[in-house]
Amino acid sequence: MSDRKLKWGVLGSARIAVNSVIPGILQSDLNEVVGIASRNLEKAQKTAVKFQIPKTYGSYEQLLQDPDIDAVYIPLPNHLHYEWTIKAIQAGKHVLCEKPLALNAEEAERMVRSANEAGVILAEAFMYRYHPRYTQIKEIIDRGEIGEVRGIRSAFTFNNANDLNNVRYQKEWGGGAIYDVGCYPITAARLLLGKEPAAVTVQAQFSSVHGDVDMMAAGLIEFEGDVSLQFDCSMWSAFRNPLEVLGSEGIIEVPSAFVTPTEESGHFYIIKSDEKNKVSVPFLNAYSLQADAFAQAVLHGKPLPFNATDAVHNMKIIDACIASAREKTKVKLSE
């Protein structure tokens, strides 16, 4: 096996890139960050100095034209995901794009089709799925350790409501709690159940002060077999991100389901017969695991565990959730 590393370029200095993804790539085994672009060259240079990134660019186009760049990471606001993913694909770059992949399923389908035609890899950046604990949890479910799954409950909430200029509060830019954090419980339920939902019903609280986006939403995602995900998401309530799988014989409890900033936060619990047993999980950087899985796909042809079509399915559910919340009605999903 070659010791070559995947060479990354980053479009923009968004907080998620600077605080999480770039450090994760740098800590991984098969990757290196060789360039960063910003419409503000000084901002790109500042980030480059912090992480010892050798190349900076004063425009996204310049980075995409660089033949030394193999893959690009796109942490731009949601409404720019489609445009710059397509441009990156047309430049022959592999793309890791922040979630949600697009503003709607139609955009996502065009992105996937473009990547397939160009022969490049496209992936949506749900880093938590690459941590081995989700493989453990799914194996526990599939072995029947908690009996038959009766339902899943999950949430992802935080409070950023005072930052009125935040991009999350721009409706046309893909703002709102469902786009930003509601997508996490949805992907987790699909992953653990191994199936797609049939219908969604969502109630949301919209705020005129925050660009008429959904500041909080609570929903019921119905799967076949009368199993459902009950979830809530918020951008103006206290932080939490739990997940619970309720079985006929036991419960899997994940106190911190999507972010694991400390060694203890990654552990989960199995509750059966009034006994609560901790399942210890290694303290691993999910962003590094995501980068290495991507690099394995590009450099060595190993299939990604979550292909780009998965993002299209997820966008269809997000579309339905937003429509349900806006129209105050149940939305059925077609095959």
From TrEMBL:
Residue intervals of the GFO/IDH/MocA-like oxidoreductase domain: 134-253
Taxonomic lineage from the root: Bacteria, Bacillati, Bacillota, Bacilli, Bacillales
Protein name: Oxidoreductase
A molecular function (GO) term: oxidoreductase activity
Matches recorded under InterPro entries: Gfo/Idh/MocA-like_OxRdtase_N, Gfo/Idh/MocA_domain, GFO_IDH_MocA-like_dom, NAD(P)-bd_dom_sf
Keywords, sorted A to Z: Oxidoreductase
Pfam families, sorted: GFO_IDH_MocA, GFO_IDH_MocA_C3
Domain Gfo/Idh/MocA-like oxidoreductase N-terminal: 7-124
Organism: Paenibacillus antarcticus
Recorded family membership: Belongs to the Gfo/Idh/MocA family.
